[in-house]
Every structure is written in C-alpha cells, then in structure tokens.
Amino acid sequence: MVFLRRGRAVKVTVGVLVVVGVVLLLATHTNHVPDLRAPRALMSKVKENVEYLDDKNGNFEPAEIPTRTGPGEGGKPYQLPPHKQNEGSQSVSEYGINMVVSDEIAMDRAIPDTRNPECKHWQYPSDLPTTSVVIVFHNEGFSTLMRTVHSVVDRSPPQFLKEVLLVDDFSNKASLKEPLEDYISRWNGKVRLIRNKERAGLIRTRTTGAEEARGDVILFLDAHCEVNKNWLPPLLAPIYRDKHTMTVPVIDGVDHNTFEYRPVYGAGSNFRGIFEWGMLYKETELPPEIERTRSHKSEPYKAPTHAGGLFAINREYFLSLGAYDPGLLVWGGENFELSFKIWQCGGSIEWVPCARVGHVYRGFMPYNFGKLAEKKKGPLITINYKRVIETWFDDKYKEYFYTREPLARFLDMGDITQQLELKKRLECKSFQWFMDNVAYDMVRKYPELPANLHWGELRNAATSQCLDTLGHAAPSLMGVAHCHGFGNNQLIRLNMEGQLGVGERCIDADGQGVKLIFCRLGTVDGPWQYDENTHVMLHKRLGKCVALHPQNNQLILLPCDPINNYQKWTFAKITPK
Ligand code: LR7
Ligand code: MN
C-alpha cells in the first residue's frame, strides 16, 4: 500500500484547496476526527494545512496505479468470445453470476474511482480501530470470492486491517475446499477461514463471524464485492468518534454478466435507506432539511436503515445488542432488525459517501434455504419481518404491516420473549420516536395506511376465476386465472380510501383495461368503490365497472350493470397454507 506523499498533495488546485483546508482544519483541531463542518473564517489557513496533509498518515489516499489493459480492467464490461458464451450462460444458472467472465478478469483489477472528488482530501485519525472484515458465503464462485478478498487486502491500510475472516456456511463445492485453503495461505494468516458444521443461513453465520473475529470493529461484506479506493478509514472514523455508530458504504453495481463496475448513484447525490410498510427496502434522496445542514456532500449522514450486506460496527457493541436476533431465519429482515435496535436503543447509523463498495447484483438467488426452510412453514422472509415488527414497532405501526401483508398475521414467528426483554433491558425508545426523529421523511413517500375494507381473492361470479397480475411486473394489464388460494398474485386489497392493491403495486384502469401500476408515491387513495350489495367494482373517475369479457376473457370497463354476473366480484378468504 502506497500512501499519498506530501509533494503530490500540494499540487491540488485552488478550488479544491478550500475544501482541503476546511477538512484539514477540523481534523487537526478535534483530535483528528473528521468533520467537515469547519467555520469558514478559518479558511485562510488552508495553505498551511495542506503542508500537513500527510503528517500522521492522516489521509491514506493511495497513489494512482498505472493503467493496465486486460479483461474487465478499469471496470469495463467484458464480453466472452463466442466459443465460451455457452459455458458462461451455464455458470449464470449455477451461480447467478457469470463465473466464466469472472475467471477471465484479474483478481486485482482496477476499478473506477466513483467517489466525490472531495473525498481525496479528508484526513483521518492515525489510530483508527482495527478491523475484521467478515465475509460469510454459501457456494459462491471462487474467483468472485477471492476478488473480494484481494480488493480488501490491497485497498486497506494494513495497520487497520486485523484480518479477513471467511465464514463458510456449509458450502459443498470442491473449489471451496482445499483449493480455497491453499489460495488464502498466500496471505500468511491475515485471511482466516472457519466453517459451519451445518447450514446456518447468512444471518446466524454472520453472528458466528462476529463472535470469532479478533478486530475491534467488524465489517461485513457479501462474498461478491470489490471495495473501492481508500474505502476503510472513512468507515472507521465515525466509529472511532462514537462506538455506538454503525457505518454503511455507498454501494456501486457490478454487472453479474459482464462485471462492468458502475455507480448506482452519481458522486454528487446522496440517498439513504428507508422501507415501505410491507418491509420492502427502499432508498430515497437525502431530505433537504438534512442536506441543508451539511457543508459538504461527501460528509457522512444519518440514515434510518441500510440494505443489509455491507456495514461496519464496533464488535463489542454489536454483541452487546445481542448480535442479530437468533430467531431470524437464513435471509432477510436482519437489516431492519439491527437498524431499529441500534436507533431505538441509543445508537446511530451513518452512510459514508467516501466509502464505495461494488456489489454484484445477481439475476436470481442461486441457492435454496435447505432444511432450514422446510422446518418452518410459511414464507420465511415474511416470518422474519413479523418477528422484527412485533419486537420493534408500536401497535399502530404493526397494523400498517398487517394491512399491507394480511397473511402475515397468521404466520408462526416463534418466541420473541428474549427480544422484548432485551428491548426493555436496554431501555429502548418507541418506534414513534424513531419515526419522528430518524425516519421522518419516510411517510412522505409511504404515508400511514388506511385499513383494508376487504382483502383476499377477487372472484368473478360468472366464471369463478380470480383477478391476477399474471406474474407480470407493473405497468401491465391484469387478467383472470384459476383461483389457487395461495394469495401472492391473487391477493387483492381494497382500502378505505378506494385504493386497490396487490403486493406493493396498485390497480387502476383506462380504456385498455384493468392495469397493474406503480402506486403514486405519497398517496394511499384510489379510484375504486365496491358495492357491498350488488358486488360491482366501480371506477369512480371513469364512471364504469370492471367486467370480464364473456368471449375473450379479458378485463374491460363497461357501464355498470348490477345484474350482469360478469360484473360481479366477491372477495374470498385466503387461508394461509
Ligand atoms: O444461506 C446462506 N448463507 C450464506 O452465507 C445464504 C447466503 N449466504 C451468503 C452469501 O454467500 C453472500 O455472501 O450471504 C451473503 C449474502 O447473500 P446474497 O448475496 O445472496 O444476498 P443479496 O445480496 O441478494 O441480499 C441482500 O439482503 C440480504 C438479506 O438477508 C443480506 O443482507 C445481504 O447481505 C444483502 N446484500 C446487500 O445488502 C448488498 C447490496 C445489495 C442490495 C440491496
Ligand atoms: Mn449479495
């Protein structure tokens, strides 16, 4: 690792010097804790401070690496030659990632620096905490896993990287046995490997990793990441300042087919994690009232939650919070559990624009949940959500979740006594506090939900078929299909404000027919009115009713005719399977 030397730092342009100065001043005046909010009057000292840029190694900015050529270098997309494309596609069906492409790309390829240019000029404490980078994996591709490790070792100041801890969640691929052990021996113990004796799922495996780790801070990564330039110090600095702060890097995208590295968000825009009432994770622009208080766009900012995979936290703090709820199963919802726990029990979460990490977004999930899922009936991820909301939401908010996911009320979430005790013992605040003080911008997008008037399958009286999204993504035409009783694409909700919904989408209509659409953000009302007596579904704006065309079985809007069976619809109960 080569650090930026003073000589180079002085060459920065005047415009940037202003930023540099502000950053450095504060760094030197507050025990080197980075905070960009320096008084403007101090800017005259800019030059002097630039001279100090490299003192105490406080900057950690690596020297430019000479440009190389080769597959995927610079984060460019790589296309396989025709004779390898078939093999490539096969690997996509096995891994959700094109491993033939990955294998062609250097383990230590260069990727574009996607940070805000200001980031080059931050200064960090020289005595940041040591870090265990914990990577849990189940049947991941060898070269993507090892590229993750290479990027961490190559792009982290060695004094802060205690170890990379790989935790194998009971993989059965030969490449992840001896070949993996052989490969990591090149790092002389800095990269450690432990293995589960049975499949535990990613959530419990991460807790195992946290218990085993030797660093002060644990930093979780998925097994298919590439960390970007100078990623580590900015994630550690807020934890150094306050060990109840968890930090989250900004995630860039790596294409699962071509390995093209490209930012999801530009360097100038900042987003933060929220969720909708069905507990689907979302990201939203940083609210203007927060943006206004910031002197620099590269400054860390508080966020209600995070995507889940990539974050740093003081190890003892994480364990003192009980790590993850041990009742959570395999995958999903753990990001919310940890976020609510941290915020409501006195900690905070910061997103760090100067820490960028690429993550391969797969086309589909290449593994199943194994025996762990068989034991539990019902959709496992919804069960996790239910545990989380039953522990952390206030009653009023729990109702929003059940309004949006009516079947969740009937799922067995197991015992949460221990979670409730922990919440009490740590004297954690209410969910209302969290909504008022942390996620206050959320209800602008996802207002509090009116209750459902009806939910279930919506059956046509003439054909006994059910309204169905037909599995199409919005925007698309809806249709009817044989009623299957499983809910999913046939679970229709009508709320008190006339909104018809299915999953997170809404239903509307126009001259073409009945449509699945994206709900208008920030609204919870809709155009529908259901007649409890005649069972017609009126579209108020169009003044017509939903009808099934007797000949072609398509949905159309017709003048309301309460004695026509093709216009009569009844909500039928779905019983959870
Ligand atoms: O049973 C398992 N055991 C495991 O060890 C299943 C998975 N895993 C490993 C797996 O090999 C991988 O390294 O766990 C890691 C995460 O699994 P992924 O990559 O299949 O998950 P994902 O990227 O699709 O999903 C996101 O949501 C998950 C919910 O539990 C986790 O929090 C993931 O870490 C998370 N990923 C991210 O946040 C990266 C950013 C993408 C987004 C949004
Ligand atoms: Mn992932």
TrEMBL record:
Ricin B lectin domain: which residues?
A: 455-572
Its UniProt pathway annotation is: Protein modification; protein glycosylation
Report keywords, A-Z: Disulfide bond, Glycoprotein, Glycosyltransferase, Golgi apparatus, Lectin, Manganese, Membrane, Metal-binding, Signal-anchor, Transferase, Transmembrane, Transmembrane helix
Q: Which cofactor does it need?
A: Mn(2+)
Superkingdom, natural source: Eukaryota
Gene Ontology biological-process annotations: protein O-linked glycosylation
Write down the membrane topology: Single-pass type II membrane protein
Record keyword Transferase present: yes
Q: Name one GO molecular function term.
A: metal ion binding
Which top-level enzyme class is recorded in the Swiss-Prot or TrEMBL entry?
Answer: transferase
What do the Gene Ontology cellular component annotations say? Answer: Golgi membrane
What are the EC numbers?
2.4.1.-
The UniProt annotation puts the region (Disordered) at 57-91
The UniProt transmembrane annotation reads 12-30
InterPro entries named in the record: GalNAc-T (IPR045885), Glyco_trans_2-like (IPR001173), Nucleotide-diphossugar_trans (IPR029044), Ricin_B-like_lectins (IPR035992), Ricin_B_lectin (IPR000772)
The listed locations are: Golgi apparatus membrane
Q: Which family does it belong to?
A: Belongs to the glycosyltransferase 2 family. GalNAc-T subfamily.
Q: Which PANTHER family match?
A: N-ACETYLGALACTOSAMINYLTRANSFERASE, N-ACETYLGALACTOSAMINYLTRANSFERASE 7
Q: What is this protein called?
A: Polypeptide N-acetylgalactosaminyltransferase
Q: What is the lineage of its organism?
A: Eukaryota, Metazoa, Ecdysozoa, Arthropoda, Crustacea
